[in-house]
């Protein structure tokens, strides 16, 4: 079997519960188990045909696609009981054998198809040689499934080439497309030479380069990880393990280790601080290579200088306290003759232009050259997983009081758009709902198609979360105008970048009976869990909204993608399934019952009837608060999934008449601040599996007892027959003697 394994959408763990289960589970692979069971089954049938009886076995299963299917024969392994087979049974067995052979052929074809998919993914890779300016040629290992862009990222992370951002890769003089797969590059093979060619800068590339240099200088500083910037995440494994996860290096290692427990865990400590939840390295304060790296106040370049290729101006203060004004041009970076009082863009002597800002700063400051090299060495001494950025931004809910240092680039990001203009130009805004739903409609028949689909879903979802986070911050900061500015602040709603924003307050007393604002604060999180559950089920034809819940400055903001046409009509006119007034009026829809019925088989939600205020029974397959809306695009959307999972009865108000006055005077029972507590999906699944296994064990026990009872009755019958036969033989013998 190949090293790469796949999990089909229909084989997810959450979907296995509604399938047939076998009593015994095998740890073997599905394909090998299928072949073994087919062989065993065929041999048992042949024995039946040849010998007229079946062999005594503990149990026999035909496993197809991982589930029990077809012929199942379970006998008590007593070594004696063998049922006889008559002529009609032989015909049935022969037909069963033919059916098994057909199933075997079909299974073999399926296995061959899966093996082809596995082979398509399984790739050992090959080595290519990289020739970059200023460094010796070196080899890297690549895979034919990778993109050319991944080689770019590798070079930008490598210690000796990390300071280069604006370059292209060429093979035999042909520039490679960044988004092309290596297997599609003509002439690329084992030992090929790929050259790194420096490209002219643009304003965007120059800003990217400066930002990348800033990130390299701050790579040892955890401030960005605590603040949730640039996909930085916290990693404490190396700190806690005290370097044991890294490669062992030769050298002196102290034999004695200080095992004295810290003060905050001793019994004498009265106040427990949460600061130790963020373990810190015992190393000294991080190295500094520059005092100041910022954009100059002479920006933007005047029109005459733009014609000469000036893109932007930088201001630098070195550790030697020397001040320089730098020019970023299309050719690279150089020192100009400007000062704080006078603008002079002419190059200073010597007139040298460096394509990399690091090369220029290394010539200007020996301290920068030394400390920058040390920073990169320490960065590469970390575990690879520690220095690789996460694919999506992580936010820490606790952070120590770290030093706040001057950083002009950080300040620029806080008050301006970062590299992009998508939220400022109306024609460039993205239709998030269409992107989210289109990626889910991608084909998933073969393994490569499923991989492409999952990558597209992850990319769009990550972009949506990042945009929603920026929008929520802008909403709380007051930088987005409300669509209902005349309403009270907590009742205002916002639309920014095709994303709908609402605040976590009880609007129009919707949650008055459930706890008011406390319930409204919890409802978005319950709704998010429901969206995740239905999204994981992935029923074709059933769509959920892109949903993000953001907590910022004490506010809870819910960001959702917009259903096409929802803003053009009233909500009562849009809802074709569910209730808009918490169960007073309930409507149902045949298509929604079908779609939600499929999802309910996995989520353990069975179709049921509810009674509206008129006393009429209405069939639904979800909570009554769930709403179904058919958008202008013809898709069937569901929203308001806060009641997807059962309520937690431990938080349901009790009957106070059962308690004495003394207990009530002491403040018991204590009421929870809201009534929207619900069980987690993991608990529901675990309960279902536990009850199912209990049923299977009980059924197996009764079947075993029934089999033993039948066997004992048969033994008694045979003994009775034998005694009768013996008696008849004795009587016959006695009669013969008398004659």
TrEMBL record:
InterPro entries hit by this protein: CLU_dom, CLU_N, CLU_prot, GSKIP_dom, GSKIP_dom_sf
PANTHER family in alphabetical order: CLUSTERED MITOCHONDRIA PROTEIN HOMOLOG (PTHR12601:SF6), EUKARYOTIC TRANSLATION INITIATION FACTOR 3 SUBUNIT EIF-3 (PTHR12601)
SUPFAM superfamilies linked: Hypothetical protein c14orf129, hspc210
Source species: Leptotrombidium deliense
Stretches with biased composition (Polar residues): 23-54
Residue ranges, compositional bias (Basic and acidic residues): 8-22
Keywords: Cytoplasm
GO cellular component: cytoplasm
Domain Clu: residue ranges: 410-652
Sequence segments annotated as region (Disordered): 1-54
Metal-binding recorded as keyword: no
Protein's GO biological process: intracellular distribution of mitochondria
Protein name, as recorded: Clu domain-containing protein
GO molecular function: mRNA binding
